[in-house]
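Quick one:
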Amino acid sequence: MNRPFNISGLLLAGLLLGSSALSQAAAPATNPHKAITGSANKAGLVNTKGKIYGKVIESINAGNYVYVHMDTGKEKHWVATTPITLENGEMISFLPNMPMYNFVSKALDRTFDVVYFVGQVYTNKNNSHSGQKGKAQSVPGIKKAKNGITIKSLLNKKEQLAGQAIHIRGKVVKYTSNVMGKNWVHIRDSSSSTDLTITTDNEVKKGDIILVSGKLILNKDFGYGYSYDVLLENSSIVVE
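Output:
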């Protein structure tokens, strides 16, 4: 029997895709639905590489996540993703990489038979819609941590620094709680427009300036579409 698991604060969320999330008691399961394949559909959405597409019939904002109910014409799906604005009747598609069964949402006080957590959905207006608008920019005014490093330097020296304890300061640009038993934080600083992803037990909020200490891990693959070239794992965080 599948065990129910909880979401707090609510996907993908922003993944990136902005949410609350998955408890350790829950494990992603194999997708029981056959992916729809083909060259295109009447909505103008390219339906390749295993995407499922359909029409939005309901959207529910639950904090860090938006739950989207969609109708493919043959069946209906719930998708959880980072905060976005979608209109009823709008056509979307998504990659069904991470289905969660008997999913309990505390934020919505309901249980979903199946919900897909995705970093982004694809629309017929834009190639993708991940809740992130415009080109990412560095954050002005972020000073390097004492005895620390900047994101740019870390990325340039990642091979030499792999496995070491890293101290870094940044601004929280995305926060997702309790996904696979971890809180996920994306920070940016003044040196680079690239986000650095952090896992932690600490809680923060978007916009916080934080000091982070964590172990640098390279090429970490959690499965189910969660793969990171660079990651600060099991980090401690101090909010300034």
